[in-house]
């Protein structure tokens, strides 16, 4: 009987881990108590296992298969003296940033999780108003609370961007901030501030015919970036005078 209980418990843990690995975050329902570290735990563990493998011990097929996986990294964030680089005395920076790599932070703020490699066609890690995103970065404070996130994708039409903006415009109030970018907009929701920006440009598209002949051309694409900042985080950064992501919201209209 005990063995059966242990087996059921083990299966439950495996199922939970698997569901976390394949979980797609609904940005319309996310809150600051989202468990950031748990969400990225197995993703980062898998990345570390892949990069620790000796390529000499793998055949080409196995190596290519491993490279199909998205890669994630974790870093520590802290407050650093700006030494005049920014209009504040302190800034919030990841400890591996080359500008502060040899400096000691005045205080540790929390931890950041980044998507550093992904398949833009296959991977889906977050969704908003039916628009799926293949990459998502998150930052948590030392208490484990989500403070901000950023998602991004490249789309071959404006449809995805319009869907995102449509959702935000219906659920948030647009803010006036000090930014001259006509493709950027700033919004205030119930729990988060939103920064949405797009970049329309051309990219080279390469394809191969059935004979293996290479053809190339250009295609119009829309690069989309959406950032969400927990409102108490913006307030804290403003009160402490910390130059950080979301800095422009300090100049929001009241």
Written account of the structure:
The chain starts with a helix and ends in an 11-residue tail after the last strand. With 254 residues, the chain is of the alpha+beta class. The protein has five helices and 13 strands. The model is unreliable at 2-20 (pLDDT under 50). The strands form two sheets. The protein has a ten-stranded mixed beta sheet, sandwiched between helices. It has a three-stranded mixed beta sheet with strand order 1-5-6, with helices on one face. The chain has one domain (2-251).
Outline of this structure?
The protein is an alpha+beta fold and 254 residues long.
- The helix fraction, in percent, is 25-40%
Query: Mean pLDDT, as a whole number?
Result: 86
Q: How many distinct beta strands?
A: 13
Radius of gyration: 21 Å
Largest sheet: 10 strands, mixed
Beta-strand proportion: 35-45%
Distance between the termini: 64 Å
Structural class: alpha+beta
Descriptive key words:
10-stranded mixed sheet; disordered N terminus; alpha+beta; single chain; 13 strands
List the topology elements.
Blueprint: H1 2-21, E1 25-26, H2 36-51, H3 60-66, E2 71-81, E3 90-94, E4 107-117, E5 126-128, E6 131-133, E7 135-141, E8 146-155, H4 159-171, E9 173-175, E10 184-188, E11 192-208, E12 214-230, H5 231-240, E13 242-243
Parallel strand pairs: 1-5, 3-13
Antiparallel strand pairs: 2-3, 2-4, 4-7, 5-6, 7-8, 8-12, 9-10, 10-11, 11-12
